[in-house]
C-alpha cells in the first residue's frame, strides 16, 4: 500500500479526496490543524470507506514540528497539499495572515518533500489565478492576471515558488490543479462542506437559506453582460474534483509527466449563472428559494469556466456529475446536518 500525506485532509475538498484515495487502496495520513475543520470528519470518512485514516493534528507553520513529522514518515510516496486559508474577504483584511498561512507552510512542506525518496507533490491551485480571462472557456495557457485578493495572490505566488523549485530539482514532480467552483457533498451525506459563520460562497448560502438559517439569498448583480445578467461560474461536484487528485497522483507515481511541473484546469467546462444554480436547487429540492437582487460584489469576475480538454486527454479525467447532481447532494448534506 502506498502511503499518501494529505494536508488539510479534514477540510471540504481534502476529506472527499481522502475517501477516493482510500477507495483506490492508498494508505492515507492526514495532517490538519483543525482551524477550519472538525475532528468528527474522520468518523465520516471511516464510515464511508470502512477504513480509519491515520491522523495527526499539526500546524504546518511550526517548521520544527513539520520536520519531526516527516522524520517519522520517510516512506511517503506522495503529498497532496490542501492546507490553506481560503476566505477571500478575510485575506483582504488580514493579508499577512494569508501570506504566512499559505506561503510559509508551502515552503516548509516543499523543503521536507525534497528530502523524501519519492518527491511527488500535488498543489491546490485555483481558477482565481486567471482573474477575468479574456476568452471563455479558459485554457491553461490563458495569462495569469494580477490577483484580486491576497488569497488569490497566494495561489499565484505558490505556483511561482513551485515552478522555480522544479527548475532546479530534477527529482521533484508537481501537479497544480486549478479548481473552478467546488460544490456538493458525498452521496452518503457523511461528509460535506462545513462553513464557519455566514457562508461567503453561493451554494452553502443557498442551502442554509432553504434550511432556515438565513432569511434570504442576495444575488450579487443581475446587470452583468451575460445571458441572464448574473455571473457565470463552473460549478464542479467535489467528488469529481477529489477523483482528479487520485488520477493526478497516479500520473506522478507512474512517471508519466511531460515536464516536472504541470497545471490542469479542473472544472466541468459548463458556465452556469447564479440563476441557473438557484433553479437547479429549486428543481432538486422541490422548494422555492427566498432571494433578492443586490448590488454587485466587489472583486467578482463576470465569467469563469474551464476548458477541460487538457485534463480530459492528458489525465484521462472528466467531470461526470451535473449541476443538479451536485445541488441535490449539497441539499441532502444540509438536511442531514440540520436534522431536517
Ligand atoms: C470564490 C473566490 C475564489 C475562491 C472560491 C473558493 C471571490 C471573488 N472568489 O469564488 O477565489 O477560489 O470562492 O470556493 O470571492 N453569489 C451571490 N450571492 C452570494 C454568494 C455568491 O450572488 O451570497 C454569486 C457571486 O457573485 C458569484 C457566484 O455566486 O457570481 C459564485 O460565488 P462564490 O461561491 O463566492 O464563488 P466565487 O466568487 O466564484
Characterization of this structure:
The protein is α/β, with parallel strands linked by helices and 340 residues long. The protein folds into 2 domains: 3-183 and 235-266, NAD(P)-binding Rossmann-like Domain (Rossmann fold, 3-Layer(aba) Sandwich); 202-233 and 269-338, UDP-galactose 4-epimerase, domain 1 (Alpha-Beta Complex), CATH 3.90.25. The radius of gyration is 19 Å and the shape is globular. β5 (120-126), α6 and β6 form a beta-alpha-beta unit. A 7-stranded parallel beta sheet has the order 3-2-1-4-5-6-11, sandwiched between helices. The longest helix is centred in the N-terminal third of the chain and has 19 residues, at 95-113. The mean pLDDT is 97. The protein has 11 helices and 14 strands. It binds uridine-diphosphate-N-acetylglucosamine.
Fold topology:
Elements: E1 3-7, H1 12-23, E2 27-32, H2 41-49, E3 54-57, H3 63-72, E4 76-81, H4 88-93, H5 95-113, E5 120-126, H6 150-168, E6 173-179, E7 181-183, H7 202-210, E8 217-220, E9 232-233, E10 235-237, H8 238-253, E11 261-266, E12 272-273, H9 274-285, E13 291-294, E14 303-304, H10 309-315, H11 323-337
The chain binds uridine-diphosphate-N-acetylglucosamine.
The site of uridine-diphosphate-N-acetylglucosamine (UD1) has 20 residues, from α7 and β8.
What characteristics describe this protein?
single chain; 340 residues; alpha/beta; Rossmann fold; UDP-galactose 4-epimerase, domain 1; 2 domains; 7-stranded parallel beta sheet; 3-stranded mixed beta sheet; 14 strands; 39% helix; 18% strand; globular; binds uridine-diphosphate-N-acetylglucosamine
